[in-house]
Amino acid sequence: MRKAMALVLLLLFSALPFAASTSARSVDVEISMMKYDWYSNDTIEFSVKVSNAPFGSELTAEYEITDLDGLLVQSGSSPFQSTGPTNQFPLPVKHFFQGSNFYFISIEIINSDNTILANSQIPFMVFQNTIMPQIGNLLAFGDSLSDMGNAKDSILNVPDVPPYWQGRFSNGPVWIEYV
What we know:
The protein is built from three helices and eight strands; from the N terminus they run αββββββββαα.
């Protein structure tokens, strides 16, 4: 009786589908950049690294740039094909500066079924690049820290002895020359 029962159980279990648990690796995305502070006229090149994506599948990296308040500034996408265990590609972004200094870029890796496989986000800073207008003439009222050597040509007749440099009341260029 026990042998018959064991045989019935063996036949019963052999008819059931066998399932083994497998640990599938999840898709991972990593965003990096050379630096985290940029000027508003720079093209920022993010490096996107996707790991463990299904080989040969058509994927899309969709990105959104938001400001510190969470407002969408720019969005876009970059299609790519998974060609190995790790895929890395550049993502250049430009012309998004809207006056804020702090931004976030979020990237989602999406397959052909519009399923989000992975996502990542990093912060970065952007400073407004300003070009100062050229100054034709500058008149500085001051002391020896502002002397451009005009005292020698004046009625003061500054002597050419150390520590004076090129007829100035200084030992080298002064701050106003750098302005």
